[in-house]
Design a protein that fits this description.
There is one protein chain. This protein is α/β, with parallel strands linked by helices and about 350 residues long. Helix content is about 40%, strand content about 15%. It has 14 helices and 15 strands. The strands form 4 sheets. Strands 5-4-1-13-14-15 form a 6-stranded parallel sheet, sandwiched between helices. A 5-stranded parallel sheet has the order 7-6-8-9-12, with helices on both faces. Strand 2 and strand 3 (about 80) form a beta hairpin. Helix 1 packs across helix 8 and helix 1 (about 5-20) crosses helix 12 (about 265-275). The longest helix is centred in the N-terminal third of the chain and has 16 residues, at about 5-20.
């Protein structure tokens, strides 16, 4: 059995414990944000950037760093300045490093190729994607049905590792719907779960297939890899994220999905248990307040926001912002100054 497959098998107990559910977390989301930050909006106004002394203290107390990828390590296919040097410095200091991404377009094996192509020496076991989380969630509930996938190859590759049957994905990317009087679209009545991940070939055929499966197949699960509003497809600008695809299916089915990516606790619980890491020794580094930083806050981690991605300093310091990181800085390589 490969290390990727064995990792998925090991995830079963962790996923059951983390209880990734849809309704309970959604119904308490606003309360959770207030409870986890424990900081008023006025305090966000008083925050200042992490200085060298604070960076040194963070490095001294942190044994494990968890990094988001888009906006922290790279933008699109371009490395952010200073990332390779920072990663090597942290390795030389004996820090454990993990990389978590909500982007489901690649499997962990696919992301390993991207890290390698960018000159970063990372192992597959240190990479966790939302495509992995979706497949592992199904394994945790002993799923034995068929999945319809709205998304790209990463989800299918992770399902294949677990021997889960699936359809859709790339096979439906070019399909068009030509409306005519009395048109009736057949759907796969064997599908008992629909996974919606980021999909650059999203189309009306996929929307209708997913909608029919969820609405008409008894007990069919609706799973979202994440609900990110935007993503970094290129370094030039932000692009609509998986939240836009999930929103379409939410609208047509009038159902809320089970969300398995950040800020869900699954991947954090998996890492902490598998590697026996106390959560108070982990620092989450990300560029998004409502996923990365909330993920860290909810998990009891130290949190570092970098301004190299989605979140601007203006938004962070806004009186309307309730999600406040422990530290913030311009980009990951600022840690180099603390060595």
């Amino acid at each position: 059995m490969s290390s990727l497959a064995s990792s998925s098998v090991a995830a079963r107990s962790v996923l059951v414990q983390s209880k990734v559910t849809s309704s309970a977390k959604r119904n308490t989301q606003s309360k959770r944000i207030s409870a986890t930050t424990q900081i008023s909006a006025s305090m966000a106004h008083k925050q200042r950037k992490m200085d060298i002394a604070e960076a040194k203290r963070l490095l001294d107390k942190t044994k494990t760093f968890i990094f988001d990828c888009d906006g922290v390590i790279w933008k699109g296919d371009s490395l952010i300045d200073g990332v390779p040097e920072t990663i090597e410095m942290l390795k030389s200091m004996g820090k454990q490093l993990f990389f978590i991404t909500n982007n489901s377009t690649k499997s962990r094996a696919g992301y390993l190729k991207k890290f390698t192509s960018l000159g970063l020496n990372i192992t597959a076991e240190n990479i966790f994607s939302s495509s992995f989380a979706a497949a592992a969630y199904l394994e945790s509930i002993k799923f034995d049905g068929k999945v319809y996938v709205v998304g790209e190859t990463g989800i299918g590759e992770e399902l294949d590792l677990l021997g889960i049957k699936w359809s859709g994905c790339e096979a439906d990317k070019g399909k068009e719907v030509t409306l005519s009087e009395g048109l009736y679209m057949e759907h796969d009545k064997d599908v008992s779960a629909v996974i919606v991940g980021f999909d650059r070939h999203f189309n009306y055929h996929k929307i209708q297939q997913a909608t029919l499966c969820i609405r008409e197949n008894p007990g069919c699960l609706f799973i979202a890899t994440n609900t990110d509003a935007v993503t970094h497809l290129t370094s030039a600008q932000e692009w609509a994220g998986n939240g836009s695809m999930v929103g379409c299916i939410k609208g047509s089915t009038q159902q809320e999905p089970i969300v398995v990516g950040k800020p869900s606790s699954f991947m954090l619980d998996y890492i902490a248990e598998k590697y026996s890491i106390p959560k108070d020794e982990i620092c989450m580094v990300g560029d998004r307040l409502d996923t990365d930083i909330l993920f860290g806050k909810d998990g009891g981690l130290s949190t570092l926001l970098v301004l190299s991605g989605v979140t601007t300093e203006e938004r962070l310091l806004s009186p309307n912002n309730e999600i406040v990181p422990d530290f913030y800085t311009n980009q990951l390589s600022d840690l180099l100054e603390a060595k």
